[in-house]
């Protein structure tokens, strides 16, 4: 086989260099991702601009670090923290987070891709210890679950957001108390519920009795007023009115005026 012409060797060299240049210069950012450009000869990390999804050309001496910028979930299982009275509480929580896309260059420069371990995990653990330490086991188990969840979110957010991480939510999944404490709390809650039910029944019976007393008093007052108003004169007047109405009635009857107490006596045909 004959050797290739000498003039083709530089062409092959240029072609190989071009292909290497092209491979080093072409960057593809996938969906749900963003890139941070590092300029080797121009100031290092570009904190002002972020490479969005799609195809990009960069200088071959620069490089791009790609970040997942979709919402992600961290499940912190079995965090052991102390309540306000020093009892050990086990708490499970989920953290929904993602990088702050507009500040991705600063995140890369200050924390790097390991920001989950360096920022989020220490923050959620610190905030959980701080918040739970303000409450009793009974409050953690029953009445204050939503308030505790919101406080943990706010305290974690205050820690991670200045470090260019966006916190979307903190969800308290489970709170586990020592068995003896849990049983004592449940007994107390049952007793309180029974007491509330008893007070409700007692209040209802008292109101019903008061209602009956008021109704009886009203009837007695009405009868007393009616009796006081029925004088002999009123009764005679009413008797006369009744006599006049009976006299005009087509029914067969005998009306005798001057009966007992001056009232008419009515004798029917039956």
Would you write up a description of this structure?
The chain has 270 residues and is of the alpha+beta class. The protein has 3 domains: 21-68; 72-182, Tetrahydropterin Synthase, Chain A; 232-268, no CATH class. The protein is built from 7 helices and 10 strands. The chain has helices at 8-25, 104-110, 115-132, 137-143, 145-160, 179-229, 232-247, and strands at residues 26-29, 33-39, 44-45, 54-57, 63-68, 72-82, 88-99, 165-176, 253-256, 265-268. The strands form 4 sheets. Strands 3-2-5 form a 3-stranded antiparallel beta sheet. The chain has a 3-stranded antiparallel beta sheet with strand order 6-7-8, with helices on one face. A two-stranded antiparallel ribbon has the order 1-4. Helix 3 (115-132) crosses helix 5 (145-160). The protein is elongated. The chain starts with 7 loop residues before the first helix and ends with a strand.
CATH architecture of the largest domain: 2-Layer Sandwich
In the CATH hierarchy, what is the superfamily of the largest domain? Band 7 domain
Are there runs of 5+ residues with pLDDT below 50, and where? none
Q: Can you write the helix and strand succession as a string?
A: HEEEEEEEHHHHEHHEE
Q: Name the structural class.
A: alpha+beta
Give the overall average pLDDT.
79
Layout of helices and strands, plus pairs?
Layout: H1 8-25, E1 26-29, E2 33-39, E3 44-45, E4 54-57, E5 63-68, E6 72-82, E7 88-99, H2 104-110, H3 115-132, H4 137-143, H5 145-160, E8 165-176, H6 179-229, H7 232-247, E9 253-256, E10 265-268
Antiparallel strand pairs: 1-4, 2-3, 2-5, 6-7, 7-8, 9-10
């Amino acid at each position: 086989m004959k050797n290739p012409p000498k003039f083709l060797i530089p062409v092959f060299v240029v072609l190989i260099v071009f292909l290497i240049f092209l491979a080093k210069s072409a960057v593809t950012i996938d969906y749900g991702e963003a890139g941070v450009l590092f300029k080797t000869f121009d100031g290092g990390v570009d904190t002002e601009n972020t490479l969005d999804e799609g195809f990009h050309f960069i200088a071959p001496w620069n490089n791009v670090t790609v970040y997942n910028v979709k919402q992600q979930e961290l499940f912190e299982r079995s965090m052991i923290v102390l309540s306000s009275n020093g009892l050990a509480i086990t708490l499970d929580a989920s953290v929904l987070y993602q990088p702050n896309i507009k500040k991705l260059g600063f995140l890369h420069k200050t924390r790097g891709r390991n920001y989950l371990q360096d920022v989020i995990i220490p923050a959620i653990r610190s905030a959980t210890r701080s918040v739970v330490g303000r409450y009793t086991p009974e409050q953690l188990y029953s009445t204050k679950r939503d308030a505790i969840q919101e406080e943990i979110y706010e305290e974690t957010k205050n820690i991670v957001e200045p470090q260019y991480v966006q916190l979307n939510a903190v969800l308290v999944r489970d709170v586990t108390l020592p068995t003896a404490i849990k049983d004592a709390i449940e007994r107390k809650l049952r007793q309180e519920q029974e007491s509330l039910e008893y007070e409700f029944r007692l209040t209802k019976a008292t109101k019903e009795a008061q209602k009956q007393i008021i109704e009886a008093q009203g009837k007695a007052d009405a009868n007393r007023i009616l009796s006081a108003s029925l004088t002999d004169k009123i009764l005679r007047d009413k008797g006369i009115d009744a006599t006049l109405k009976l006299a005009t009635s087509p029914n067969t009857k005998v009306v005798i005026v001057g009966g007992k107490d001056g009232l008419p006596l009515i004798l029917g045909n039956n």
